[in-house]
């Protein structure tokens, strides 16, 4: 259920720290009242399994990646009903949907803000298409490396 919520909304900092606290208590043992000694740094626990970690995801980055999937869909699915509704509601300029300012929902403002972030733009590459359409092809460069 929490992954579903993380895919639609930007998680508040308090929620992120609560989830990470629960994960730490589960992995290291103990509880809120009783703390055990941690023998491994949390940064190592969060490393991918391929490089020696346990593969535990950082909640803030995971939340950004799940929201980034919506940005990705809006870049490649220009004919979808979702894109057409958002285009009619907020407008389009240069092949990108406008953010809608204050009239937009919290979900759309989070998606629009994420599209402007550096890490999203650095992981998305635009290529000229095959000539049949004027749209650009968009491919993802190491999307899940963000996690």
Q: Give the radius of gyration.
A: 19 Å
Oligomeric organization of the protein chains: single chain
Question: How would the global form be characterised?
Answer: elongated
The parts where pLDDT drops under 50 for at least 5 residues are: 134-138, 141-147
Average pLDDT taken over every residue: 77
Strand content: 5-15%
Describe the strand arrangement of the main beta sheet, using strand numbers.
1-2
Number of helices: 7
Helix content: 40-55%
Number of separate strands = 4
Gap between N and C termini: 19 Å
Helix and strand content put the structural class at: mainly alpha
Provide a short characterization of the protein structure.
By secondary structure, the protein is mainly alpha-helical. Helices cover 48% and strands 10% of the residues. The longest helix is centred in the middle third of the chain and has 18 residues, at 59-76.
């Amino acid at each position: 259920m929490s992954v579903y919520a993380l895919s639609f909304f930007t998680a508040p900092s308090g929620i992120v720290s609560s989830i990470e606290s629960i994960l730490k208590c589960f992995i290291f043992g103990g509880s809120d009242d009783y703390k055990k000694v941690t023998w491994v740094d949390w940064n190592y626990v969060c490393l991918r399994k391929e490089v020696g970690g346990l593969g535990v995801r950082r909640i803030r980055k995971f939340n950004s990646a799940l929201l980034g999937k919506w940005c990705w869909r809006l870049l490649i699915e220009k004919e979808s009903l979702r894109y057409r509704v958002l285009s009619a509601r907020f407008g389009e300029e240069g092949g990108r949907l406008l953010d809608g300012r204050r009239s937009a929902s919290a979900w759309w403002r989070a998606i629009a803000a994420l599209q402007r972030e550096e890490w999203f733009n650095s992981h998305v590459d635009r290529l000229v298409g095959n000539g049949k359409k004027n749209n650009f092809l968009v491919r993802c460069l190491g999307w899940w490396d963000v996690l």
